[in-house]
Design brief:
22% of the residues lie in helices and 27% in strands. With 179 residues, it is of the alpha+beta class. It has a 5-stranded mixed sheet with strand order 5-3-4-6-9. A hairpin with a 5-residue loop joins strand 7 and strand 8. The protein is globular.
Length: 179
């Protein structure tokens, strides 16, 4: 991280305001001494725009996507966390890690309905009980990462080690080699 970056003036949201600013499940999951929650503008919520505006590299932005998969005849959902600078190996490593017979990105409306979060702000924090959370091993190599906060107008700043304490979290190599 570059703490002296001119765009690095973060608008930190006090812990006592989180329940007013974040989905309840997210607010209940983040811990104030481990996760910094800060406000961003909606137009800078998407990874590339956020990175440019706030001075974080894509390699420090951890995106969460929702996948729908079939396993043993039943439909399941999972959250997958990877760095903005890497590409997930959906049909190889991710499918194998999940043991999925079929796998697809969840439809936008399904992801929003099941998580209770805004599309473009979905995070691994507050994911529904029973969901698996797959975190690419490259995420764990970063000193800190920025993630969605359940809404487009906030982000989370944290050590990746915090992710490992989430229920259902599994760390595995899930991305393709960058060419």
């Amino acid at each position: 991280m570059h703490p002296n970056h001119p765009a690095r003036q973060l608008d930190i949201i006090p812990h006592d305001q989180l329940s007013d600013r974040l989905p309840a499940r997210v607010a209940d999951t983040v811990t104030p001494h481990e996760v910094v929650v800060f406000a961003v503008t909606d137009d800078a919520s998407d990874t590339a725009a956020f990175s440019e505006r706030y001075g974080f590299g894509l390699e420090d932005c951890a995106n969460t996507i929702v996948l729908r998969y079939k396993k043993e005849g039943a439909e399941h959902y999972a959250a997958v966390v990877s760095l903005g600078s890497l590409r997930l190996d959906i049909n190889g490593a991710v499918k194998a890690q999940l043991g999925a017979q079929r796998l697809s990105f969840a439809k936008r409306e399904d992801a929003v309905e099941h998580t209770g979060m805004e599309f473009g702000g979905i995070t691994a924090f507050g994911i529904p009980d029973g969901w698996r959370i797959l975190v690419d091993s490259a995420v764990m190599e970063r000193a800190q990462v920025v993630m969605g906060a359940g809404v487009r107008e906030a982000k989370l700043l944290l050590s990746p080690a915090v992710l490992q304490r989430l229920p259902g979290c599994e760390v595995a190599p899930l991305t393709l080699a960058v060419q």
